[in-house]
Specification:
seven-stranded mixed sheet, 6 helices, 9 strands, 20% strand
């Protein structure tokens, strides 16, 4: 009973605090956006490392003034918290991972792309290994002929957690450089070749 109460309390309070923290970091920082020359009107897949998740909603707003996106989020407890934080920014979620119960979440992702939603995905989530691209992002892109745009946020100063993904929390009053790649076309590529292309793009502005 006590454990259930604490989990409920965490699911109520932590997302509120998290959303407030994200806004404080963003609005107290100087921002630079490095955007692609071409922004597709059709639904796309936005890919970013799991440890670089925190401020990505603000980069998404540079693409779509009216958000229409869903992010693939783990169905674990921490994933539930992240989903509730993301909801504050007008972005939906698809619960699951491309490794655990992968078929179900991929079907939901493909369906959402067909319905006009952009899809956000962490290719190394939900449990790593860090900086490893899973098959799921390639499968979705090729099945729907969707382009992939890689996101990165590089803060001038930050805290880094000891978790498997080395989760990055930018410090307030710093400088944030947001990077978005040109749309990447994976159509016709073999799985390993497609994953390598995405990995190279994802690592271009990655913190160590």
């Amino acid at each position: 009973m006590r454990k259930r109460f604490l989990r409920t309390l965490a699911l109520t309070l932590v997302p509120l605090v998290g959303a407030l923290l994200i806004r404080i970091i963003y609005f107290t920082s100087k921002k630079y956006f490095h955007m692609p020359h071409v922004i597709p009107q059709e639904p796309v897949i936005f890919a970013f490392w799991h440890g670089d998740l925190l401020l990505q909603p603000y980069l998404y707003y540079q693409f779509r003034k009216i958000p229409k996106a869903k992010v693939l989020i783990s169905d674990h407890f921490d994933g539930q918290i992240i989903a509730r934080v993301i909801k504050f920014f007008g972005i939906g979620t698809i619960h699951g991972s491309t490794t655990r119960g992968g078929a179900k979440v991929l079907i939901q992702g493909l369906k959402s792309l067909s319905q006009g939603y952009d899809i956000g995905i962490t290719p190394d989530g939900p449990k790593g290994p860090r900086y490893t691209v899973s098959d799921g992002v390639v499968v979705m892109a090729q099945k729907r002929q969707a382009k992939v745009i890689v996101y990165s946020c590089v803060p001038s100063s930050f805290w880094q957690l000891g978790s498997w993904d080395r989760f990055v929390i930018p410090k307030p009053f710093g400088v944030l450089n947001f990077y978005a790649s040109e749309p990447i076309d994976l159509e016709g590529l073999e799985m390993n070749e497609a994953k390598e292309r995405l990995h190279k793009a994802l690592m271009l502005h990655t913190l160590s």
